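Annex B.
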Amino acid sequence: MNQVRFFLNKENKAGYQKIGELDQLGKESSINDTIQELIKIYVSQLNGCVFCIDLHSKEALSKGETLQRVLGLSAWEEAPFYKKEERVVLAFAKEVTFIHRGGVSNKVYKELQECYSEKEIGELLLLVTTINTYNRVGITCLLEPKVD
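Alkylhydroperoxidase: predicted structure tokens.
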């Protein structure tokens, strides 16, 4: 275990509050809670942010998500228990998170358009970019979850 470097919400309260405002916009979007939590867990797995993985896994379970689906996120492409709309969101989240690997492909974007409106795609993008921001804060600051 590492010692926390600093708390951004203490050292740059205004900046941290702005991230929180983006997060609140995402929570108030038309995207359902299940997909929101799947995005937050999966992107946090991709980035290796244990603090956010722990936080959002617990949040998803408290909202009625199944343990099987939470645990299966790291292998969603092989798992049979995700709907088409969830699969395309997870593919999109991966491509946005790894934007440096060629951006969001036309294939994934077309599949996204088959399931979501442009407004919803914008909301999904906001959700993905916000959790990526939180992951970078958590990892840089060395945030760790409390042991249950």
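DSSP finds eight helices and no strands in the chain. Residues 118-141 form the longest helix (24 residues). Further annotation is deferred to the next reporting cycle.
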